[in-house]
Amino acid sequence: MSSYKKFLQVGLALDPIHVGTGGTRIGRVDLTIVRDPVTQVPKIPGSSLAGVYRAYVAMYFEENRTAQFPNRDKPFYPDCAGLGLDADHGHCRQPDCPVCTVFGFARGAGQEGGFAGLAAFTDVHLLLFPVATRQGPMWVTAPQTLRFIGLNVQGVEENAVYLESNSGNPLNLGWLLLPVQACAQMNDIKTKLQGLGIPDYIQNRLALVPDRLFAHIVNSNLEVRTSVSINPETGAAEERALFSYEALPRSTVLVWEIIAKNPQHFRIGGQEIGVILDGGQRMYSPERVHEVTHQAHPYLKHLGIGGMGTRGMGRVEVVHENESPGTQDIDCVEPAQRQSNPS
After folding, report:
1. Which of 5, 14, 154, 255 is the Cys-Cys partner for 315 at CB 3.0 to 4.6 Å?
2. Same domain assignment for residues 109 and 8
3. Distances in Å between the alpha carbon of 113 and those of 54, 78, 108?
4. Which residues sit opposite 9 in a β-bridge?
5. Residues 91 and 135 in one domain
6. Cis bond leading into 78, ω under 30°?
7. Within this chain, do residues 198 and 332 fall inside the same structural domain, yes or no?
8. Same domain flag for 252 and 115
9. Domain for residue 118, yes or no?
10. What is the pTM assigned to this prediction?
């Protein structure tokens, strides 16, 4: 009996995405997005993802409560979506609640108990990042990002852009002009991406760069917008209220994992977890836990994640959700080429 399983999720940004740091800073952009503290590559924290999933799953079960849970008086939304410790409208904390069991709940001060939840969420990482070039848009990736989907890519070491074929002409990625190298195994990478639901127009325009260049290319090609506050009395722009903010551009491909625990290994208040899902099936396995989180995906596509939602930002379409794959080794440089170029 498996204690847990990991499920890989791949999403395509339908709109720009702004998950901010919660404050302003002096610099090129007033409102910056979250970045990995080591690589400086933008990401979406797992805590942000978990909160959005919880709210949307609660919405789903509230809309279907009459059919699936006719005997429950307490609604799943908004009470179980995140009000937490509120005495009158907090988490219901019941072992048959799909929201509280999958996402956990807390109790007030002085009360014993609480439950961490059956689903855990990793940070959302960039997998493929769109960059404008003189040959049209290219989706840039790097070995460090391909590891998230089980690809261990070797040979991407020179300060160059690796394409499926080498035309002999350098290619610009935004402001950065790089020589072109041919990746001998690019077709294997494309096959892997095809299995993850990545559209053909993205697969056919892949560009590999070394890890050391990836963060520079991404941060130099983020979308930056400018907005201004509106005076409600005059309907005109508020004086000295101009601000700028950055976002991941539309068509960015994102990747994250959901770690689903086995419900049979846990108890809530001494009782077995007794959630009954569609079709009368009990939530008895990690796969069933993942099935609950899946209910949030249509809402992600229409309601989105992050800030600036009223400015047309945040929608994400999940194009793949399945168990995390094993590791596959890929070498972009042919052995003969490596021997002739030992650097």
Report:
1. 14
2. yes
3. 20, 22, 9
4. 256, 321
5. no
6. yes
7. yes
8. yes
9. yes
10. 0.90
